[in-house]
From TrEMBL:
SUPFAM superfamilies on file: P-loop containing nucleoside triphosphate hydrolases
Pfam name, any one: DUF87
Protein name: Helicase HerA central domain-containing protein
Species whose genome carries this gene: Parageobacillus thermantarcticus
The Helicase HerA central domain, residue ranges: 270-340
PANTHER family the record matches: SLR6007 PROTEIN (PTHR30121:SF6), UNCHARACTERIZED PROTEIN YJGR-RELATED (PTHR30121)
Residue ranges of coiled coil: none
Length: 688
């Protein structure tokens, strides 16, 4: 077969020979753009392939292709183009031309006439398959024509062309067959530019001219949106653990809470929203279990409904069942030192004055400022007393200026005069010997923690006769060790064998289900959140390890300003402690409409939206820029665990995928679990 040259270069030497008297320097021999980017040679090899010569010893085979007019399915998925571009050495060019409205309507009317004539012919022949297809096309054409007339849609002339490359003819054929099979699975058809190799090659280059005129197809605005390469049903893979199955591709989607070298999220926080029964707790349980085992991530849980007790037990974690009758004490007045990197600008340093004592320590080759944030802690203690004086459901007013003044004097007296605690970390210890879990420890013995009883006794002694202190004293009285709500008074005690530092616990669950729902449970939630911030997230013993604090049913405590403010502080500052906050809520609007809670949303990088209340959908769409299609997935009866996973600006439609083995420890409803096990047993025995 005769070789054809696709490109011709001007021969400078030949030009020089034409006029031997002309000096060579008068000729412009600088390389042009085409001299730089063009290959050494291109030739047509057969009816549908060609060869590119790049080096002296290498040949690259290529095959131009295009999607013909009848090669498109009736409906296209958003990730179809990814299947083409990810197939190997493939270049793809999309040629798009918008059709003005009047021309579009005339073209559709002409097309409608052709369809009607074909329908009449097929009706006479009785070809039922063709009749149904033509009626569908007529209805689609009529609808598109109406939408264009009312400016609700547009029509475009679109062509998809490409080049497939291979190092050998066999490799080129294998790749071509693989692409054809991949696209045919999505009901696309591809064709070669048979006997038009040169035109196909030039059309697939970014020259802006399409020589394959039968590749042009009319598409509307919605169909064209599926061509955008950044609109894909697949999420990006950054490692991590599987979180669910992609509802479009059927592949596993992964979540990496802490990122990797190629991807570092601005924070490690995650919010999970959905109505009751949508699968929020199930998603949290899967995340806890898989990251604990496969990603070496520690977890601490605040569990208002007892949902995570079974999971913690079966994963070998520590369950702390907190109630008025338990012997557990979580002291809201307990104070600990904090460590901040010397080169950091953490806002906690704002509480540290130049005159305050501090200590410089070195750990793992890095220097830290160690100090006791005594002023910040005193403010947190005031917030605790503010909560308890408000009473059940916040029916009473908060602390008055007089009550706050009485408490500040009490705290200063206890910290300064009684315990001698200053900003220096050594002030928390005394030399001596103490018995801890049956073991004698010498030196560095902790001083007793200040307690509610200490504050109460001071108030009674100093202001017992003061009318303005009566309400405060009466509100504190039930929280004393001999009162009806004793779990916050005394030295912190999580039970035998559980260290207060929590650095030995990989999974710990604070179950507060048995607490009084309207009053005591919100207080416990606040105190535990504060405690985990001090002794889990800020724990220097596990400073370099990955940690996640899980807070379920956040919406129940949204009206408690002190808790929301502290929650926002944790969400904003935990990243510097190599930690993240994962929270779940039924009521999205209550969080969105709370000014302080919005700060939590603004400091959250990852969201998982499950089935939502109808009244919430518009606000979710508005605040998170979800598309109509994404909103539709949350509205049209999604299955349990099905929703939109939003990581930054990327969205993926998934459904959580607990295995049969995982269902045993993630299903907290015993009746549902037994029914599941019974059905699995019947399946294994061939019962159905």
């Amino acid at each position: 077969m005769k070789k054809k040259k696709l490109f011709k270069k001007k021969n400078v030497d030949a030009a020089v020979e034409q006029n031997e008297n002309t000096p060579l320097y008068q000729y412009d021999i600088r390389p042009t753009l085409w001299d730089v980017i063009a290959p050494d040679g291109i030739t047509i090899n057969s009816e549908d392939t060609g060869i590119i010569k790049q080096t002296l010893g290498e040949r690259i085979y290529f095959r131009p292709f295009f999607i013909p007019r009848d090669g498109y399915p009736r409906k296209m998925q958003t990730n179809w183009l990814y299947s083409l571009t990810a197939s190997g050495e493939v270049d793809v060019l999309i040629d798009i031309h918008k059709v003005n409205r009047s021309d579009a309507v005339r073209a559709l009317q002409k097309q409608q006439t052709i369809f009607q004539s074909s329908l009449y012919f097929q009706l006479r022949r009785g070809n039922q398959d063709q009749i149904h297809d033509l009626r569908t096309k007529i209805a689609d054409t009529d609808l598109l024509m109406q939408e264009i007339q009312f400016n609700e849609n547009d029509m475009f002339h679109v062509a998809v062309l490409g080049l497939i490359f291979g190092k050998s003819e066999d490799q080129l054929n294998r790749l071509s067959e693989a692409i054809e099979d991949e696209l045919s699975g999505m009901f696309f058809k591809v064709s070669t530019t048979w006997s038009r190799v040169k035109k196909g090659f030039l059309s697939a280059l970014p020259f802006g001219k399409n020589h394959i005129h039968d590749s042009v197809r009319n598409l509307d605005r919605r169909a064209l949106s599926t061509f955008a390469p950044f609109i894909s049903g697949s999420g990006r893979y950054y490692g991590g653990v599987p979180i669910g199955v992609n509802k479009i591709t059927g592949q596993l989607e992964f979540i990496n809470s802490f990122g990797n070298e190629d991807y570092k999220p601005p924070n490690y926080n995650m919010g999970i929203f959905g109505i009751s029964g949508s699968g929020k707790s199930l998603a949290m349980k899967l995340k806890i279990a898989r990251e604990l085992v496969a990603a070496n991530i520690r977890a601490a849980i605040i569990d208002p409904e007892g949902e995570f007790r079974t999971l913690t037990k079966r994963l070998g974690g520590i369950n702390l069942d907190i109630s008025e009758e338990s012997n557990i004490v979580i002291n809201p007045l307990a104070i600990n030192y904090t460590d901040i990197p010397l080169d950091d600008e953490d806002e906690e340093l704002e509480w540290l004055k130049e005159s305050d004592d501090k200590e410089i320590i070195e750990k793992n080759g890095r220097k830290f400022i160690r100090f006791v944030p005594i002023r910040e802690k005193q403010n947190e203690i005031l917030d605790f007393f503010d909560i308890i004086v408000r009473g059940k459901n916040g029916e009473e007013a908060g602390l008055t200026v007089f009550e706050r003044n009485y408490l500040e004097k009490a705290l200063r007296y206890i910290f300064d005069e009684v315990l001698g605690i200053t900003s220096h970390p050594r002030s928390l210890f005394v030399d001596g010997v103490e018995e801890r879990d049956g073991v004698l420890i010498q030196s560095n013995v902790r001083k007793p923690e200040p307690t509610i009883s200490d504050v109460y006794n001071y108030l009674v002694k100093e202001y017992g006769e003061e009318p303005k202190a009566e309400r405060l004293i009466a509100a504190i009285r039930p929280f004393l060790r001999d009162g009806s709500k004793p779990i916050f008074d005394g030295q912190t005690n999580l039970g035998r064998g559980v260290t207060q530092a929590l650095h030995q616990a990989r999974l710990v669950n604070f179950n507060i289900k048995q607490m009084e729902e309207g009053f005591l449970r919100p207080i416990a939630y606040h105190v535990i959140l504060n405690y985990l911030w001090e002794h889990f997230i800020k724990n220097i013993e596990i400073a370099t390890e990955k940690k996640l604090l899980y807070a379920d049913e956040f919406w129940q405590f949204i009206d408690q300003d002190q808790t929301v403010s502290f929650f926002e502080k944790v969400a904003r500052r935990c990243r510097k402690r190599n930690a993240g906050l994962v929270y779940a809520s039924q009521d999205f609007l209550r969080i969105l409409n709370n000014e302080k809670a919005r700060g939590v949303l603004q400091n959250t990088h990852t969201f998982f939206f499950l089935e939502q209340n109808k009244i919430d959908l518009e606000q979710i769409k508005k605040n998170f820029n979800l598309t109509e299609g994404e909103i539709d997935k949350l509205f049209t009866n999604p299955e349990k665990g099905e929703g939109i996973l939003r990581v930054g600006k990327s969205s993926v439609w998934i459904r959580t995928n607990p295995s049969d083995e995982e269902m045993i420890f993630v299903e907290s409803n015993e009746a549902v679990l037994q029914d599941f096990l019974k059905r699995k047993q019947m399946q294994r025995s061939g019962g159905f």
